[in-house]
Amino acid sequence: MSSAVPERKRTWRTGTAPGIFPLLGHGIALYRRPLAFLNSLPAHGDLVEIRLGPQRAWMVCHPELTHEVLTDPHTFDKGGPLYDRLGKLMGDGLVTCRQPTHRDKRRLLQPGFRPSHVAAYTDLVTEEAESVCDAWPTARAVPVTEAMMTLTTRVISRVLLSDSLDDSTTAEVRDCLSDVVRGLFVRTVVPIDALFRLPTPANRRYRHALARLHAIIDSAIAQRRRGTDRDDVLGTLLAATHRDGEAAPITDQDVHDHLITLLLTGVEAPALCLADAFSLLARHPEAERRLHAELDAVLPGGRRPGPDDLPHLVQTRCVVSETLRHSSPGWLFTRVATRETELAGCRLPQGATVLYSPYLLHHDPASFPEPERFEPGRWLPGKPTAAQRRAMMPFSAGNRKCLGDEFAMVEATLALATIAGRRRLRHGPGHVERTPRPGITLGERALVMVCEARSQAVTAPRASDSRTAGDHVVGNA
After folding, report:
1. In terms of residue numbers, what domain contains 200?
2. Could you tell me if residue 82 is inside a domain?
């Protein structure tokens, strides 16, 4: 007879968020004070019912429940107001497609973002980062968010399209993406189509930005068809339109949808992460000092980092990880129940919208003590607990986890190392930290800081041991 004690089934708390406005639901609270609203929800339960406009939805407030949702994509598929809106922009791309077609789409795009391939992008990222910071005048105010958007737009456009976009087109893509992510958010939290058919300036900007993004992608595809093959993502996609064998060829619309998807996801989030990192470092001088000590040791004289330097940029990667925890650009996502199901003891109807928030999970004091404190040392090798690793999900989890998660980490680490090794950014006099304007992503969208030159101290020892540098929560999540 077994003496094993059966594991007790956890009892989940469920509730309803107060403050429902007629017609608008909780959309006003999500738009005006998004972070405060999210932080208020766990007091009402582990699974909390809210309203998106007149529609019922359920917010998951506990990391274990979130993993239950994300690791069962056949029950909780991509969908809900966010992905319904994104689908009108991205078509049936990797982010918005339903589960039955996801595996084939991911297999097609995966080679360009494998770790072995990511290393080849090192020179591309550091070249663009160097170009951005070298253009900054010292002792002058510089538009940090705009510069980071320019940097990430150049990087992802070169990965996708090689040199198909000139500087003016790159700047236009950057500006269009900013208009789109803001417009998508308000359409998600208040999903009432009639409001967005009105000829308001914001609605016109949104429609114009959508049209221009589609036109720019179509032009790049047409130009490539008239030119020579290139070893980039567009080249892979065009080859797949003519492939033979087990896999069916993809369509021209598939090519367009994949490029729009990767462009949208590859610009705004990494740019906001970098801008937030510089802002947080300026407010936390000890963290900045540790970062500069590592850069002076690993990259003496402010030289560009290369692939071999990545294992030694441990503090730099920790700064990126802690920024993603503290100020995750991807902060609110939706799923849809494909059938009637049970979650946390609550019966959800088929078609129910389920939301989860990396910001909320990353600021749970049960997982991260003193969650508002910026402390990159949380992510030093061996420091994060299993529970913290599980609660940390800036790139989602399960088989729908972001395809480019490691690419994004490498890009941010290299860009931060390149810029911080050459320049120090300071908040100007009278700087006041403000709640970020919400969009599909969240971050400091108009950050301006004062640029100072750095003089590097040349020191011989490496700052870390490469044998332990790979033990990192985000890269290995």
Report:
1. 14-453
2. yes
> Nearest to residue 307, comparing CAs of 108, 121, 460?
121
Rounded CA gap, 463 and 477, in Å? 24
428 inside domain? yes
Domain assignment present for residue 324? The answer is yes
Find the CATH number of the domain harbouring 441. 1.10.630.10
The answer to whether the CB of 125 falls within 8 A of the CB of 411 is yes
Number of domains comprising the chain:
1
Helices of type H across 284-326: 285-298, 314-326
* Strand runs labelled E in 304-362: 333-337, 341-343, 346-348, 353-356
Torsion-angle region of 443 (φ positive above 0: left; ψ -120 to 50: alpha; else: beta):
left
Four-point Cα dihedral 412, 413, 417, 418, nearest 10: -50
pLDDT digits (tens, 9 = 90+) for 380-402: 999 999 999 999 999 999 989 99
pTM over 0.85: yes
Q: Longest C-alpha distance within the chain, in Å?
A: 77
Non-local (6+) Cβ contacts of 475 within 8 A are: 317, 406, 409
Residues 6 or more apart whose CB falls under 8 angstroms from that of 100 comprise none
pLDDT, block means (10 residues), the chain with 477 residues = 56 94 84 90 97 91 96 92 77 87 88 76 94 93 95 93 87 88 77 81 90 93 88 89 72 91 91 96 97 96 91 97 95 94 96 95 95 97 94 93 91 97 93 76 90 63 37 40
Return all residues near 267 (Cβ < 8 A) that are at least 6 apart.
149, 152, 153, 156, 173, 174, 177
Q: Where are the beta strands (DSSP E) in 25-101?
A: 47-52, 55-60, 76-78
What are the helix (H) ranges across 190-284? Answer: 193-196, 201-226, 233-240, 252-283
Q: Is residue 79 part of a domain?
A: yes
Distance CA 239, CA 225 (A): 11
